[in-house]
């Protein structure tokens, strides 16, 4: 929207625009109205074609960038023998369990911090201090305590997911307008009704922003944890490809990671829209 | 909207740490007006104190096996030993060197591409979606690919740090420059500014706050990527190397020390970015 404006105002000088409007019938003044999707998809398409042609002409050594066909073949092979599905399933399970733990914990802690100033004063700062250091740096320490198996992955994913959820929830509850709270008092709502009818709807946008960031974090940390130590999953697939010097495998895993991450975000956005039917777009409360 | 959503993670990371400093400042400012006793909220300190006591007690009474939990004094002792006889300062210097090298490359590339995308709406429409889409790949998914391209030594690490810094930089610069208020653009059209003059005198000053948001995100991500690259790629002097060492040799005091240093540098970067942003806002408001 705003990007379009940039183009239009920059490219047309005022006097030029006047001349143009005299010369050209109004409905034909913008001949290049190529849909944004076409423009956006055009670039990667061109890239792939150039890549393909370069590989075909032997300009790209396979150790630097394998040809698109090779990557497609690897992808189809991995799909065909079920390897990809296995790794994807393991990774998805880890993310869902870790994110589930982190989201529930984060919602509970964030709600307590948002509702009770005393709880917040005592417990928020220590959590913040720990959260300040990314979970990556804690990982070598955690490994000593819990080994490198599933529990480690659940803990680090839950940890990284919980932080934005805590912030989003606490912030959302604080941001509920005092006017609404007073209204609730005037209507003599009990605690349950206040929470249900006033606090929750007011906090939902920020809460979902937190959840979505939490999910993005969970996905990032999954890759981190699987690169760090694992024998299954998409991150492991990449490490394996690197060890075998199979770039095609690495690239396929990267693409799958990106698509799966995007799919999860879209899913959560859809949930968000259902949770607040009165809203049109997705919220970005920052 | 979509740019907003995608850069959300970067900004949220920035915000994770953000609230602490202003609130402390606010407390301090309030303190100048009130009696000293009321100025400081004792409650967070009470919980930090309790945690420290708990730590001492757990060590002293052997609640946790000593092997797993050194006393806080051991960590301090380790710091003294490392500084006087060890290599921790050299490690820190090496880590910072890599960090700055990657940061400079990533920020410069992000500024250049973001500026181009922002200036030319057409380019923004064609290349922009691809830039946004590649952000969907979890950051650490770049590690195997980059290490195959650039090797596991310094070039590979610096390349990864640069990618981490590049991403928030390009998106925020792009957004900042493309969101220059329409009136400014019209004014520079009336004044017949050349594209370069427009960029220098109008676009960049108006986009500075967003560019600084990008820089803030770049600092945080590059710092994370620095330690990550040291953990995942070839072992070399650096904080990440010390984390590895502590984990493999079961030296938990060293682990705590390295984590604390990691957190402190992150805190320093964050404070620096916040100060710079605050100065900028003041300068802008004039």
UniProtKB/TrEMBL annotation, chain A:
Q: Where is the ABC transmembrane type-1 domain?
A: 84-268
Family recorded in the similarity comment: Belongs to the binding-protein-dependent transport system permease family.
SUPFAM superfamilies, alphabetically?
A: MetI-like (SSF161098)
The signal peptide, as residue positions, is none
Task: Could you list this entry's UniProt keywords, alphabetically sorted.
Answer: Cell membrane, Membrane, Transmembrane, Transmembrane helix, Transport
Q: How does it sit in the membrane?
A: Multi-pass membrane protein
GO terms under cellular component: plasma membrane
Organism whose genome encodes this protein? Xanthobacter autotrophicus
Write down a Pfam family by its short name: BPD_transp_1
Name its GO BP terms in alphabetical order.
cellular response to sulfur starvation; transmembrane transport
Q: Mind telling me what this protein is named?
A: ABC transporter permease
**UniProt subcellular location:** Cell membrane
Membrane-traversing stretches: 33-54, 95-117, 129-148, 154-173, 249-268
Q: Which residues form a coiled coil?
A: none
Q: What is its main location?
A: membrane
From TrEMBL, chain B:
Question: What GO cellular-component annotations does this UniProt entry give?
Answer: plasma membrane
Which stretches make up the ABC transmembrane type-1 domain?
92-273
Q: Which domain of life is it from?
A: Bacteria
Q: How does it sit in the membrane?
A: Multi-pass membrane protein
Q: What processes does the entry annotate via GO biological process terms?
A: transmembrane transport
The record's subcellular locations are:
Cell membrane
Q: Which family, according to the similarity comment?
A: Belongs to the binding-protein-dependent transport system permease family.
User: Can you name this protein?
Assistant: ABC transporter permease
Q: To which species is this protein native? A: Xanthobacter autotrophicus
């Amino acid at each position: 929207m705003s990007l379009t404006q940039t183009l239009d105002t920059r490219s047309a000088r005022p006097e030029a625009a006047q001349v143009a409007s005299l010369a050209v019938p109004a409905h034909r003044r913008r001949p290049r109205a190529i849909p944004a999707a076409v423009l956006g998809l055009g670039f990667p398409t061109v890239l792939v074609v150039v890549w393909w042609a370069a590989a075909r002409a032997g300009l790209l050594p396979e150790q630097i960038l394998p040809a698109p066909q090779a990557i497609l073949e690897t992808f189809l092979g991995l799909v065909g023998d079920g390897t990809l599905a296995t790794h994807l399933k393991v990774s998805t399970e880890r993310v869902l369990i870790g994110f589930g733990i982190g989201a529930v914990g984060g919602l509970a802690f964030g709600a307590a911090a948002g509702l009770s100033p005393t709880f917040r004063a005592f417990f928020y700062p220590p959590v913040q201090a720990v959260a300040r250091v990314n979970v990556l740096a804690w990982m070598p320490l955690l490994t000593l305590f819990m080994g490198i198996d599933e529990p480690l992955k659940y803990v680090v994913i839950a940890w990284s997911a919980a932080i934005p959820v805590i912030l989003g929830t606490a912030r959302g509850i604080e941001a509920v307008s005092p006017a609404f709270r007073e209204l609730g008092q005037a209507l003599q709502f009990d605690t349950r009704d206040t929470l249900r009818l006033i606090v929750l709807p007011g906090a939902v946008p920020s809460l979902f922003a937190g959840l979505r960031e939490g999910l993005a974090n969970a996905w990032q940390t999954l890759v981190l944890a699987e690169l760090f130590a694992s024998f299954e999953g998409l991150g492991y697939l990449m490490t394996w490809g690197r060890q075998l010097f199979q770039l095609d495998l690495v690239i396929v895993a990267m693409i799958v990671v990106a698509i799966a991450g995007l799919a999860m975000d879209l899913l959560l956005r859809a949930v968000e829209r259902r949770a607040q039917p009165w809203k049109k777009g997705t919220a970005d409360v920052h | 909207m979509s740019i907003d959503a995608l850069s959300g993670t970067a900004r949220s990371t920035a915000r994770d740490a953000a609230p602490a400093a202003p609130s402390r400042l606010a407390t301090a400012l309030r303190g100048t007006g009130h009696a000293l006793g009321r100025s400081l909220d004792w409650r967070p300190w009470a919980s930090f104190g309790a945690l420290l006591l708990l730590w001492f007690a757990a060590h002293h009474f052997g609640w946790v096996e000593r092997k797993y939990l050194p006393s806080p004094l051991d960590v301090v002792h380790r710091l003294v030993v490392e500084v006087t006889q060890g290599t921790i300062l050299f490690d820190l210097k090496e880590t910072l060197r890599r960090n700055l090298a990657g940061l400079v490359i990533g920020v410069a590339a992000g500024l250049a591409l973001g500026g181009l995308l922002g200036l030319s709406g057409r380019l923004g429409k064609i290349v922009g979606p691809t830039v946004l889409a590649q952000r969907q790949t979890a950051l650490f998914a770049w590690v195997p690919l980059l290490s195959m391209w650039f090797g596991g030594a310094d070039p590979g690490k610096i390349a990864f740090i640069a990618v981490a810094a590049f991403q928030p930089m390009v998106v925020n610069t792009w957004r900042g420059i493309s969101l220059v208020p329409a009136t400014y653009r019209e004014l520079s059209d009336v004044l017949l500014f050349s594209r370069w003059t427009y960029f220098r005198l109008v676009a960049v000053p108006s986009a500075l706050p967003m560019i600084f948001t990008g820089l803030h995100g770049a600092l945080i991500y590059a710092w994370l990527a620095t330690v990550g690259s040291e953990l995942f790629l070839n072992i070399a002097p650096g904080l990440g190397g010390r984390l590895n060492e502590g984990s493999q040799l079961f030296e938990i005091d060293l682990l705590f020390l390295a984590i604390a240093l990691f957190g402190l540098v992150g805190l320093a970067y964050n404070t620096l970015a916040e100060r710079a942003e605050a100065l900028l806002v003041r300068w802008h408001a004039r």
